[in-house]
Amino acid sequence: MEYRVFGKTGYKVSALGFGAMNLPGVPLEQARETLNYALDQGINYIDTAAAYKNSEEIIGACISHRRSEYFLATKTAKRDYEGAKEEIERSLSRLQTDYVDLLQIHYVNYPAEMKEIMSEDGAYRAAMELKAQGKIRYIGLTGHRPEMLAKWIDKGDFDQVLFHLSLPQPFAADDLIPSANRWNMGKTAMKPLSGGFVQPVDKALRYPVSQDIHTLISGMVSVQEVDENLRALEAVIEPQEQQELAQLAADMGSHDCRRCNYCSCPLEISIPDVMISSVIRSKFGLLPKGEAFYEKHKEKLTSCADYDPCKEQPLCEPKCPYQLPMQRVIQETASTL
């Protein structure tokens, strides 16, 4: 296992981290076996959140007795002081621990949210108070708009940042990582498979690890998946492969969607899923979860071209901060189904 110094924290984290968001979907004994196996293999970064159903409780029940062996990160999506303080205290109880190594203020995509978080009665104040009490060691920020995250972290208020970095979403490499480096922040990448869509899996995992990050969190729910992830990252990534992966990511990211979720569709089409998978789908095909998505939503996708309110002006596109041709991509994709 490769370990990297996690920015200003000084902690050596495993290059492969454990994302616990999907654990509530499997039996408790399977979750217990998977978490303990991951720790046995040297994975020492565990990521969860208050919003991930009972993920925190699973971690507390399964590995709290091994607390000294892992760096524990959780999240609050509350924006106000009282709500955040209450949620963080509840997380500590669920995780069966006196402290978390990292508390991340979660899923911040709008300037108004950030303003509220950093206000006198905002979530950041709650995090700072609990840090002073020893219940939080470090404070981080997460979101889906790398260029906005770069702006928000550039005052030195945060110790870590969590962001998308994958073959079809490579944008943080240019938009965010340089800003994080200026402040010696911990850099955590997420969603290498973009929610279970992207293949080939080995390249999907090796690309973010080949970039200037500290740890990659991958959602694993079985011993088999832990082994698959470890095997994919076993070989050293040489400079030539790093360049090849970077070029592939540039090609696969040509759709330009950041999954910021500003857009919405009256037909309830999941626009980011279509946009992000559009290029990689045509080149490599998709994992079973991705193919199932298209099968499930085929009728919605093919209805786009005939939806009268969007014929003159698509309702989704004015909401996109990146001015992306979403209607065209959806209709082109629908024509291949």
From TrEMBL:
InterPro entries: AKR (IPR020471), AKR2_Oxidoreductase (IPR053135), NAD(P)_OxRdtase_dom_sf (IPR036812), NADP_OxRdtase_dom (IPR023210)
Pfam families reported in the protein's UniProt record: Aldo_ket_red
Gene3D superfamilies given in the database record: NADP-dependent oxidoreductase domain
Coiled coil location: none
Signal peptide residues on this chain, from the entry's feature table: none
Taxonomic superkingdom: Bacteria
Transmembrane segments: none
Domain NADP-dependent oxidoreductase: 16-199
SUPFAM superfamilies (alphabetical): alpha-helical ferredoxin (SSF46548), NAD(P)-linked oxidoreductase (SSF51430)
PANTHER family linked to this entry: D-THREO-ALDOSE 1-DEHYDROGENASE (PTHR43312), NADP-DEPENDENT OXIDOREDUCTASE DOMAIN-CONTAINING PROTEIN (PTHR43312:SF1)
Listed name of the protein: Aldo/keto reductase
Upper classification of the organism: Bacteria, Bacillati, Bacillota, Bacilli, Bacillales
